[in-house]
């Protein structure tokens, strides 16, 4: 969005089209670019238009408020369904936790971006198929494929949210990058909401304790569970109706933690060499190693998504971080290959092998684009596109693990 605004700043018709396609995203991007455009009269007019009356807290349209209330109540209802129908909690939550929130967000962004009825029907059919499939999978020992399906299915639903966020287009590169920004803003908003809810919970329980009522169990079973289900819905509502509310917080967090992650990774790799621990023979250590890898990869994604200017220092940090992460990924990938060669293929090893291979290819691609931006041979916008272009591929891999692995490995 930032690059498009800069390229079309003297084209009123094109700017109006960009604004109408994504009003919150346009406002966020334009306000970030405004310090560079102060001398442009057209930019000054747009700034006044976008920020007139911005001191007033907006609560969105009536339709958006209905979504927040109705969606929150529906999420709370789905979260309490096991208690109402006497279902097994472990069975219900492990298999269906993604269906508590994600379908509501899919419906919201589908309506917001006016996707076609045909696309909406396909999405609804896929979700019904997924619900039936995940609850049909047999419980067996070992149940590696079931566990993998339960882990990857929410990621499939998350990618469907991204699909509707992009207006129902798989190749909406800028929209996928905007989807990552939305996730960063949503994460910040959810943390703030949870902190406020935690303080309210402590005060409420403490006040009732003073008058002799012990409400912890009832409060947790109803208020806490329902509240946790509603937090992503409320957070999404706030990020969409108040796009500038946390839009400046996520970039600051990303910029602060990128160099911290780089230093931490370098220290960690050094200590690992002398600790005697290795992911080749220690399964638990390999799992933690891959968890670290996923966390750093996520930080790189969000940092690239939030980098709006050609800040060479930040680009350099991201480049070094990607190089070190490639080394970490290489170690993890070689450890998985070693374990497969020694003890054979299993569902877990196959899933980790595919994920590590995909992440390594993605990191190499991002690293090349960061090098181009660092040497000024290419634009920073290409780095963002390098992140966005792989997101649909990750979605396909998650779908393979969820729907094909149980069949390929005989439901074991």
TrEMBL record:
Regions that span the bilayer: 92-109, 115-134, 146-166, 186-208, 220-240, 252-274, 286-305, 317-338, 350-371, 391-411
Entry keywords, A to Z: Membrane, Transmembrane, Transmembrane helix
Coiled-coil annotated residue ranges, if any: none
Origin: domain of life: Bacteria
Name of this protein: DUF4153 domain-containing protein
Originating organism: Spirosoma terrae
